[in-house]
Amino acid sequence: MSARGALRVVGAAALALFAALAFTPLAGVLYRVLVPPAPPPEAAPAIVVLGAGVDEGVLTDHSLRRALGGVALFRRGLAPLIVMLGPGRRGRSEAEVRVRLAEELGVPSSALLADPRGSTTRDEARVCWEDLAPRGVRKILLVTGGQHMPRAAALFRRVGFEVVPAPVHDMPSDVDRPEARLEVAHDLLGELLARALGRVAERR
Amino acid sequence: MHTAFILLLVGLSTLAAALVARKGARRRLRSAAGKTLETVGLAAVFLLVNAVIGFSLTLLARAVTGAFFSLYLNDDVTILALSALQALLFQWWREPEEG
To answer: How far away is chain B from the Cα of A162, in angstroms, using its nearest Cα?
Structure first.
């Protein structure tokens, strides 16, 4: 096959994939296959909210949803402590911004802990263990996005935690809007890549 | 609803373009579709190359400096747009000059 022919095949495949992901329910189907539904959350000594990004003191959409998810669990009386995670390069860290938000939403300062040291999910599991193990906390309610939960829960279990998954619905899995469908596919692809890279790192 | 609306919109504008196209030009539709597929294929190749280079640079920067550089640096929609531009430029560059 000539180079032009090969490019046409690649182009046709790319267009077909784009059409399938944007204009059919395929992305939602993939989401439901790859993201298992979580059981209702149960009480634990601490809620741990994983980081998802902050830009110059402004939380990203994912970060805000996760922070609010953690606060909602606290308000339901499921745990007496919230650990907010998330680093920051300029200005306040994500963890600090979230703690301030939680305080404004009525969570007492004594029930909040900010730890901005973790840059990856693996780091977050490690620093959380350093924060909570001395307090005797082993069981945690883990708050993150549904697509991120399987990998995150595995990493937190590996450092010694008993994990109760409490995923936030930060991605619509059954939508008609092509842009939202592509966003779901994009986030799933990112998570699958992260899982693959994590496996490669473990083999070293 | 959204999907139907967007497909209708693009279908109508394509139909309008076909109506204003000259008769002779319509015969070249097959060739134009082929070139479009080539350009999309090139954009996909550029996107893949950009991703591989981006991931490699990020991991190299981590190894050399010891500082943390997020792989999410490579997760920006502008890379997709710029890959499409690279493909267009490359495509026009390869085309023989007219006249």
So the answer is: 28
Is B6 part of the contact surface with chain A (CB cutoff 8 Å)? yes
| Residues belonging to chain A | 204
The pLDDT value given to residue B73:
85
- Between A117 and B17, the more confident residue is A117
- pLDDT reading at B99 higher than 60: no
Identify from B9, B10, B40, B95 which residue to disrupt to test chain A contact, counting A C-beta atoms within 10 A and taking the largest count: B40
Beta-carbon separation of A11 and B41 below 8 A? yes
Structure tokens at A153: 């829960």
Q: Which of A185, A169, A191, A31 is nearest to A121 (CA)?
A: A191
**Confidence at residue B19, expressed as pLDDT on a 0 to 100 scale:** 82
Residue B2: its pLDDT value, please?
81
Q: Half-sphere exposure of A144 toward its Cβ, with a 13 Å CA cutoff?
A: 27
User: pTM (2 decimals)?
Assistant: 0.81
Task: List average pLDDT for each run of 10 residues in chain A, which is 204 residues long.
Answer: 90 95 91 85 97 90 95 97 90 93 97 94 96 96 93 95 91 77 89 79 58
Cβ atoms of A164 and A153 within 8 Å: the answer is no
Closest CA to A50 of A200, A168, A190: A168
Which residues of A fall within a CB distance of 8 Å from B45? 7, 10
- CA–CA min distance A10, chain B (Å): 5
B51 Cβ under 8 Å from any chain A Cβ: no
Contacts with A15 from chain B: Cβ below 8 Å: 37, 40
| Alpha carbons B11 and B17: distance in angstroms, whole number | 10
Contact A159, A133 (CB under 8 A): no
Q: Where do we find the tokens 């109506």?
A: B19
Residue in A with minimal Cα distance to B94? A4
CA distance A73 to A165: 12
> What distance in Å separates residue A48's CA from the closest CA in chain B?
22
